[in-house]
Specification:
Butyryl-CoA Dehydrogenase, subunit A, domain 2, Butyryl-CoA Dehydrogenase, subunit A, domain 3, alpha+beta, homodimer, lipid metabolism (chains A, B)
């Protein structure tokens, strides 16, 4: 950790660990090189107060002084959302994915040197996920060879784009393309928003910041914005024309590049969201595990020490599945990163075959509960094409064994059988397949496909969740087939993998039981095994969160300190609060004293 | 609502309602009188900006100008936590419950006139739920006839008490009573903290505020505090002596009043927490239902209006069970209020028979997942005493029919059978009884009771949850047996009751299936019925949240406005943010311009 630690209140916990923590740090980071860079960047951020002073200032340095890999790790270590994320994460990728070669040649160098700063203006006040419902228009004017960008209504105001509120000079704006009075649907346009001389909004453009966001304030460093266009003109060549074109005379032409290419940017964003989720979860788990080891409550024998909270089974049943999930999400995130790179390379070579599945599973994994319709549709399509003999692809390839999965019996006779990866995998595959096929059957009985999708949408969500959980479980199992060096590292990861799978099985045992994938006896054996796995992972808990290699600076938590010195820290922090600058509070004379002395003023009586 | 509404964007929704909203308002409020008072107080708060200006100021008025019932409704309408809650809600009840008659006579008038302000100093930095583990000491000094209150360690500092940080002059302090070198465990003492002349802490007392709280800031109006004692002396008669006494010569004596009396205060607080939970949930649901009716997304036919989000089954499956829960919690809260009053009256008459069950079920209902051990222990005790023929009491009386519940078959053959209250009730009773009895069996096989409780604590939590859910379902069903006036009011409440029960049954179908209370076919019929119930309640959704009778002022939400005029409100609110006071942001010259112009200064290069 590199921090000066006088007393390590968690030393005893660390002595209990049964694996090589430094090797686990490598496994978590992905490679020794990535660990080394992350570690170095985290130290820079922790040691130089200026870096955190002003995010904007720090990001200037990212761009100027670090290579890309270092910059992205430094960005992660700084841990404050800012406009830069949208510039690099969406503005540039959108131009890369949807711009023609000439457009890329013109705009990318400007953007990469940050001579312009861009954002991604898609969402409108009245329109979010349904991109096809956007109202902003881009009408081609053949006289001037320009597009006129316009916000026809209040609800068409762009709303939410990060980086828009205060910083961006440009945006990729999504608007309905209209040529010769015909609406060709939503397309992307590069629009300059602010003067490069004095940063004032260009004529016809109204920009503001949408203000503070609901919640704990973590996103308030981002200048999410609002934007309206009053007939703003841009040259024709600022429409992103890789997928479709408008010619000089206003003719609309579609190239043979599929429209789904637009999803490419979203695939990137979603895979980063999965990565970010694993970081956020691991950070929370790190704090919770350390504090649960420090905190004692109940269970003391006459004046002795109370029990560590982490030793309670109920606490373990909440904490350890989350610890296992942090590792599971980390490994599935790693796989998604590979998937994205693979899809991108294929797209560059005009191979679009893997895009639909990548689109579906990044959407599903992005959240196991929201916007999973894409996954469900993809699965229903997979089920319906089973009859044709067409082999299912990618993460859906288990459907090739649908016949077996529909009738297989779970081979669990005692609790230890639940430790076999093949048994776990088959149970999850059978559950996902049976739920998907049952749902497809129900839909096929309705009057029409869309009606069926609507009527059974709740079940479709459950189907998608089952599929996505299977992906995470199977990627964890695949990871464990690889070489993972370090004493005891693979062993403890195997325990975590089983905890992840069996805690899911417990949580969703209604699915497994009602589809007959397991019987009540097997469900109860799974719980028995889970209890035993909790005991096995318990001595490794603190070392497993140490393996995330987070500095105290990054965790920024009194409860989650590396040295476990929780109480003095909490106590000292409290006294720093400005409320403690005075002993007798402001307002005593005005409000408290008159109350205590029963001298309410006439002012108080006027209500 | 009484507000000036020009255009009602939800008028169409309100026209659809199939019940009498004003009658439902009465059913929600509890009585016409309570509705009238709540409504009046909400208007006072909404119309007089001074009331919200400073909570302290407003509370002065509560005390001075309103009768108690009005004061509590006004407090609810102001909706900001403050020290007053602890003074009235814990300090006074603690003295009432644990003080002798003389102590009550001395302290209650001072407290009720607010000539002193008190808080409840129990929790310590190192000790929360385990009250018996507290470290603060109260050592009797027979020479001076005083107790010496002392904080021997850092972790013994009182930590969290609301009202302590800045306002309270007194506290009920919990400390280990020591007489003649013997530790008699934790007792309550009335301790003066601050001077009544100038509000400065008395000698030997250190007080501070613990600062801002994690989360969305809702609790930052409360002055949660930290407190240390350095050998602070108080007269002997400031120990709360109803339960046990220390005589002039230091003898410790226990009266025949049971120790659980201490729980009386907690029972009160917990029942208020259940009430508050129903308020918080109903408020969130009100905002979510209205916005879901305003918001449209997807599903448009060529340029037509998109579908209202509330019409999606997936949205209904998330929203409507919560709407049903709001009503369910309201009614169970009403029952708990009755229970508390009943227990209190019995306690005054030295009848302690109903306290253990009240303690157990308020703890369980307070949270369906935390601190439910009490419930589980109570249930295990109930199960073990079944053999003795002793009839189980209160909410556990269904155990009298344990034999039947262990073997009964669910009588559901088609989806409509799930509408019968008797069928629902029996399924929930059978599930709770079977889980409790199975758990008791497992525990009986372990080497000792405490080991068993520890080993099966996860199952015990599930048992407690099953029992508490049964309570909520059965209280909802009982409510529907009462007379509920108003056109269609009872009918729509019946639909909500079934939604509440069947959505729980769906969520926990693993419990119901593995214990054989229902079979997979019946689980699927329950889902079918649930889908149909969602459609039935859909047209009433907006009217059902209107029935909470919340003013826009109280909701304080752009999305949840009564008139549904969401987008213009969001838009206007955004522009009020101080960030929009300037068009070109502060920091442009220093940070953004040098970046765009590639003129990074040497200052930036020093990193």
């Amino acid at each position: 950790m590199g921090e000066m630690v006088r007393v390590d209140h968690l030393a005893e916990e660390r002595r209990k660990a049964q694996f090589d923590v430094s090797a686990m740090k490598v496994a978590w980071a992905g490679s020794r090189r990535e660990l080394e860079i992350s570690d170095r960047m985290a130290r820079i951020v922790a040691s130089d107060p200026r870096v955190n002073e002003v995010t904007v200032f720090c990001v200037i340095k990212i761009v100027s002084f670090f290579v890309e890999e270092e910059a992205s790790k430094l960005r992660a270590a700084v841990d404050e959302p800012c406009y830069m994320d949208l510039h690099w994460g969406m503005f540039i990728p959108a131009i890369k994915g949807q711009g023609t070669d000439e457009q890329q040649k013109k705009w990318l160098p400007l953007a990469k040197k940050m001579q312009i700063i861009g954002c991604y203006a898609q969402t409108e006040l009245g329109h979010g996920s349904n991109v096809q419902g956007l109202e902003t228009t881009a009408t081609f004017d053949p006289k001037s060879d320009e597009f006129v960008i316009h916000s026809p209504t209040l609800s068409s105001s762009k709303w939410w784009p990060g980086g828009l509120g205060k910083v961006s000079t440009h945006a990729v704006v999504y608007a309905r393309l209209i040529t010769n009075g015909e609406d060709h649907g939503v397309h992307g346009f590069i629009v300059q928003l602010r003067s490069l001389d004095d940063h004032s909004p260009l004529p016809g453009i109204t920009i503001g910041d949408i203000g503070t966001k609901f919640g704990n304030g973590a996103y308030n460093t981002m200048d999410n914005g609002v934007l309206q266009f009053d007939n703003v003109r841009i040259p024709r060549d600022q429409m992103l024309m890789r997928i479709s074109q408008v010619t000089r005379d206003g003719k609309y032409m579609v190239s043979n590049v599929p429209r789904q290419l637009v999803y490419g940017t979203m695939v990137f964003v979603r895979q980063s969201i999965v990565q970010d989720a694993s970081v956020a979860l691991s950070r929370a788990v790190c704090i919770a595990v350390r504090y649960s080891a420090v905190r004692r409550q109940f269970g003391s024998q006459k004046g002795g020490l109370e029990s560590q909270v982490i030793d309670y089974k109920t606490q373990q049943s909440r904490l350890l599945p989350l610890l296992a999930s942090a590792y599971a999400f980390r490994f599935v995130g790693e796989w998604l990163k590979w998937l994205y790179t693979d899809v991108t390379q294929r797209l560059q070579a005009n191979d679009f075959s893997t895009l639909p599945e990548a689109h579906a599973c990044t959407a599903g994994l992005k959240s196991l509960t929201t916007s999973v319709t894409a996954v469900a549709r993809f699965l229903m399509k997979t089920v319906s094409s089973l009859a044709s003999g067409e082999p299912p692809v990618g993460t859906a390839s288990y459907f090739a064994r649908a016949q077996h999965l529909m009738q297989c019996n779970c081979e669990v006779h005692n609790a230890d059988d639940w430790l076999k990866p093949s048994v776990i995998l088959e149970a999850f595959e059978a559950r996902a397949a049976r739920m998907a096929i049952a749902c497809a059957k129900n839909i096929s009985k309705t009057s029409g496909l869309e009606e069926g999708f609507s009527e059974f949408s709740i079940d479709l969500v459950d189907v998608a969740v089952a599929h996505c959980q299977l992906i995470v479980v199977s990627k964890f199992i695949e990871k464990l087939k690889q070489d993972i060096p370090g004493n005891g590292v693979k062993e403890v990861l195997q325990v975590l993998c089983c905890i992840y799978a069996l805690s899911l099985l417990h949580k969703h045992n209604g699915d497994f039981l009602s589809s007959g994938c397991i019987n009540p006896k097997q469900a109860s054996l799974a719980n028995e095994q889970l209890r035993s796995l909790y005991s096995q992972v318990r001595p490794n808990a603190v070392a497993l969160v140490d393996s995330f290699n987070y500095t105290d600076h990054y965790l920024n938590s009194s409860l989650g300190r590396y040295d476990g010195n929780v109480y003095p820290t909490l106590y000292e922090e409290a006294w720093k609060d400005p409320l403690n600058d005075t002993v007798v509070p402001d307002g005593y004379q005005e409000y408290i004293r008159p109350l205590l002395k029963q001298q309410l003023t006439s002012r108080a009586a006027r209500l």
